[in-house]
Amino acid sequence: MFYISINTNILEGKMRKCNKCDKEKKNNKFRHDYKKTCLKCEFRFKVWLLRKLAYKSKLTAYQKVASRIGYMGSGFLIAAQWKIDPTLYVIGFTLILIQTSSRKQWNLVALNCNGLIAWISHILKSL
Ligand SMILES: [Zn+2]
User: How many domains are contained in the chain?
Assistant: First the structure.
């Protein structure tokens, strides 16, 4: 047997009283049915700010490894721009391609593929 408890306040559209500010407020001003304190009284600027600043998405192990590989690739690209060496560009674009594809950033994947093809064709022309 299942018993579904229904809060009659929601169905009837009744007002609820906050236990902190003692004001009658609508149901949508409370986080859930069993909250006794309204959202306005619960709000703390410091907690809000910290939650906004925190990095939320959790990376998988593959994405973490790919991120390190991507840093190495950007190092190669930095070196390549000083040396104008096509092999460094090809290595750098290949490594960054791994990172961007692991994060599913397809616009950057397309950008890196373009750079990779361009520098490979540059190598082939110079042979
Ligand atoms: Zn309140």
Answer: 2
